[in-house]
Design goal:
3 helices, globular, about 100 residues, single chain, 5 strands
Length: about 100
């Protein structure tokens, strides 16, 4: 399954396709000792990452906050090790030279 990523200077959000997958990933991360926090849209809103009229797409049931730095790295590594692919979320700007896939 694809897991999408958005980042700000203070958080990394992992976006699952369904709430059930998000719960599975939360459990995976917690069992791996990774800090998992409830998702909040404040940071994305502050950095204008949520396009006009798309606020309703922010569903905390499908989104996991894994902070930044080593915690985010450990989270992404665990997600990939569990067989998921990781790519940038459409709201996350990237240089456009790739398909958005992230190599961990």
């Amino acid at each position: 399954m694809n897991v999408e990523v958005t980042t700000t200077p203070r958080e990394t959000l992992l976006w699952a396709e369904t709430p059930a997958l998000a719960d599975e990933i939360r459990t995976l991360l917690q069992n791996a000792g990774v800090l998992v926090l409830p998702a909040d849209s404040c940071e994305l809103e502050f950095f204008n990452r949520i396009p006009e009229a798309e606020q309703h797409l922010f569903d905390p049931a499908k989104i996991i906050d894994v902070e930044i730095g080593v915690n985010a790295h450990d989270a992404l590594t665990a997600v990939v090790a569990a067989g998921h692919s990781v790519r940038w979320h459409p709201w996350q700007a990237h240089d456009g030279t790739s398909d958005g896939a992230i190599e961990i």
